[in-house]
Amino acid sequence: MSLNSFSMQFIVKSEKMDKNGLVPIYAKLFINTQKIEISTNRRIEIYKWDKKNKKAKEDEELNQFLELYKTKLYNTYSKALLKDEYLTPELFKEIFLGAKKEKVKIHYLLETAILHNTNFEKMIGIKYSYGSYKNYKSTLKYLKEFVPIYANTKDIPLEEVNYNFCEAYYGYVTTEKTCTTNGANKQIQRLKKIINYAIKQGFISKNPMATFTLEFKPVNRVTLTIEELKKLIEFDFQRPTLEKVRDIFIFQCFTGLSYADIKTLCLNDIEENLIKMDRAKTGNQFTVPLLTQALGLIEQYADYENATKPIFPVLSNQKMNSNLKLIQEIVGIKKSLTTHIGRHTFATTIALANGVPIETVSKMLGHTKISTTQVYAKVLDDKIIKDMDRLKDKF
Prior knowledge:
- β7 and β8 form a beta hairpin.
- The protein folds into three domains: 6-101, no CATH class; 109-200, Orthogonal Bundle (DNA polymerase, domain 1), CATH 1.10.150; 226-394, Orthogonal Bundle (hpI Integrase, Chain A), CATH 1.10.443.10.
- α4 crosses α5 and α5 (163-175) runs antiparallel to α6 (181-200).
- The model has no long low-confidence stretch (mean pLDDT 87).
- 25% of the residues are buried.
- It is mainly alpha-helical.
- The protein starts with 5 loop residues before the first strand and ends with a helix.
- The protein is built from 14 helices and eight strands.
- It is elongated, with a radius of gyration of 28 Å.
């Protein structure tokens, strides 16, 4: 039997980083003192690679794949030894990849989307919010309806999710599903993320829908004025449920908390009249000083004997919004109230209109980018113009 030596380790190649910031993972082999590198067809964000331990950080699925890949490499080496062959790197690669080519698997769009959503669901409350998961469920539902219409088959290979597919799918969700322009863009955006997930998993090597670009329309955020807030605060509701929903909404208007965050807010999240939390949606940490109005509501609803109990009796988002619609009609506010408007009102009417810098507002809202907060500044500009027009009339 010929004398052979064999060792291997996984490496990433930063010089081959693609435009999505992903680097390829290679198996670096030493066969009889000669070196060879074989691509695993998997990619990873470079900061997620553990250079010391030669594996991914906090990605069990990828590490399991690499472990299996390593086993296949050693099995190939063992089989070559049994044949009494002296291995060269080229011969090893030919044996290994030759066996691999016989088992090439075509990956499909819907099966990948299902896998993506399954793994996404496992990370609810850890990395993602339930609201985001619901959006991906909606996208999967639409894709399941659309693919048979588009391709006359139950599923299509990932490589066929190209510009033409995106264009047709965009048309489908804007006509058959009555999505707005921005709603359709969100559908395509989620589809792009599913395709990027497929690239990371090594199902495909390049993005077939890379040439399809998105263009979101600017959205004017609806906010309440100080006068409308006073109306809400001072109104005496006869029904306890409406009183509670109004109070929760007012708390949002004075803190900027989203529905998901106010639902879990407890006394442990408050330190020296400061709310300190991680956003349920993004995981970003944010801090909001409590104004007098918000402090009064905490004193009214908090159970001081249980610091981990949610402070407010928050209903489901659907019930909150249906009760807010009833409240707006009773009070006589013409704007359509939703839990989102409370957050928008804090950003615009409470903070920006009173001189709080936009950078500070962005931090308090837990935004990842200041451009997200600038949408509220545009609303504020509209209000300034209207206010100045009224001033002109007086002069």
